[in-house]
Amino acid sequence: YLPSLISDTLGLVILAVDTSGSIGPQELAEFASEASAILDSYDCRLRILYHDAAVAGVQEWSSTDGPLVLRPVGGGGTDHRPVFDRIAGDGEQPTCLICLTDAETRFPDAAPDYPVLWALTQKRAVPFGESCLIGGGR
User: Fold this and answer.
1) Which residues contact 100 (CB under 8 A, 6 or more apart)?
2) Is the pLDDT of residue 6 over 70?
3) What is d(CA 47, CA 15) in angstroms, rounded to the nearest whole number?
4) What distance in Å separates the CA atoms of residue 59 and residue 78, rounded to the nearest whole number?
5) Average pLDDT over the chain, rounded to whole?
6) CA-CA distance, 48 to 63, in Å (whole number)?
7) Residue 127, pLDDT above cutoff 60
């Protein structure tokens, strides 16, 4: 699901980690596992956006920083629109965005001009991008 390597590094990968009230310790452990697998497989820089109804925290991590330790913050309702707004406001084009979520959320009205992968803990429809089930995938 990740773009092909054109150079030695994958570049900036943004992870949107859903930290809403519907996400528990098991889901967060699945999210950490997926993020660690990306770092183990690719030379890249991760920008992790923890969010519920707003972006509540940002963490930067690269493949050379050692084992990833997620520092989630949040716990309210879920809305992915602030994630896309934050990326647009930062002005740095990501290689891709990976949304780790149960998809009980509000989605943006339009797809961005970068690839989006919805890594879902349960089967749900998404308005754009690709989707896959992670963990138990209820």
Assistant:
1) 15, 16, 17, 18, 30, 31, 34, 35, 119, 134
2) no
3) 6
4) 19
5) 90
6) 13
7) yes
Q: Which two tokens stand for residue 87?
A: 């990326």
- Return d(Cα 35, Cα 71) in angstroms, integer: 12
Percentage, residues of the chain above pLDDT 70: 92
Q: Tell me if 98 sits within 8 A of 80, measured CB to CB.
A: no
Give residue 137's pLDDT band: very low, low, confident or very high (50, 70, 90): low
DSSP sequence for 55-99: EEEEEEEETTS-S--------S---SHHHHHHHHHHT---SEEEE
Q: How far apart are CA 127 and CA 110, in angstroms?
A: 8
Q: How far apart, in whole angstroms, are the C-alpha atoms of residue 42 and residue 9?
A: 7
